[in-house]
Design a protein that fits this description.
Elements: E1 2-6, E2 9-12, E3 17-24, E4 31-38, E5 45-50, E6 57-59, E7 67-72, E8 77-82, E9 91-99, E10 121-122, E11 126-131
Parallel strand pairs: 2-11
Antiparallel strand pairs: 1-3, 3-8, 4-5, 4-9, 5-6, 7-8, 9-10, 9-11
Amino acid sequence: VQLQASGGGLVQAGGSLRLSCATSGLTFSNYVMGWFRQAPGKEREFVATISWSGTGTYYTDSVKGRFTISRDNAKNTAYLQMNSLKSDDTAVYYCAASPITRYSGGFRFPGGIPDLGLYDYWGQGTLVTVSS
């Protein structure tokens, strides 16, 4: 299984970036996909997640209204569109995959925040730097 994150870079505050997560070696439509980020000196944190069908999404409060997670099951790829970027968004962004078998009770998380441990596979990360 491979997850390849790309699309990071240097952008000015207020700008936009689109991250991609290309996957291989798994049945993409059987996985929940998520984006997480880790800023220097901080723990990895949840950003957004999308259900296997793409019909359900969750976001951390700080990115709601600015970021949009999506997926294309035909291309085995997940995306994170990031608009109105702020310096606080500077981090390494990771994509991750969580098997559908963990969601027998439905696509829901306590407090709307999924545990990182739900995700079995992780990409290598792509650096996003937002200059103020």
